[in-house]
Amino acid sequence: MLERLRQKVIPPVAEQRSIELAGRPITYTLKRSNKRRSIGLRIDDRGLTVSMPLRASEKWLHSVLNEKADWVVEKLGSWQSRKSPPVQWRDGEQIDFRGEKFTLRIIPSLFDSPAQLRREQLHLYVRDHANEMHIEKMVTHWYRQEAMQVFSECVAHYAPLLQVAPRQVLLANARTQWGSCTSRGVVRLNWQLVKMPLHLIDYVVVHELAHLIEMNHSAAFWSVVGSVLPDYARCRSELRSYGISE
Fold this sequence. Notes:
Elements: H1 2-7, E1 14-21, E2 24-33, E3 40-44, E4 47-53, H2 58-67, H3 69-82, E5 94-97, E6 100-108, E7 116-118, E8 121-126, H4 132-162, E9 168-172, E10 179-181, E11 186-190, H5 198-210, H6 219-228, H7 232-240
Parallel strand pairs: 2-4, 6-8, 9-11
Antiparallel strand pairs: 1-2, 3-4, 5-6, 7-8, 10-11
């Protein structure tokens, strides 16, 4: 019985590892899946992620990593050089909104009031104006409200063009996806998309709406996307630079 249990042990879904590539120590996340047939490498703001078949050998893994060593080192360096510093939730800080930069203005007040966008500034009337966590919470609330409005407008524009009608459009906060769509017609869109340029928001919305017709990423699916966004490939490539999958 014990031997049978040992045979059924499945490796961890994800684990942290280290390896030396091109003379540099590299830390990466290893993910195993019985759905994969090949070894894939992805680099984003969280670093290197390696996805491999469940029963793939360590020899194969090391062979692929060493073969791609120069590419990995170059891409990781590129990500680190352009990685934005964390936002300081203080007066005068620059924040992103619809692909543009706005200045956060923190205005001491007796009461908290909803954020107001005025030209190139986001005015925030805050009682506890020195509490950065509270300020972040208020700005996030504003982001989410704006996101819902922008997403609703995009869906209202593109859904009739694709001749689809999502059952619900909801906000999501996933770390690994900009959007998702269920077979029941529920579309979820990451609220942080509202920081992106409008053409990228359009692309993600169309991408998820297209799944109401094709629940896959086949040639037929991309044909649906291209029917309303002919330049979707450029948008898709640009979106990848932000580090989250569609």
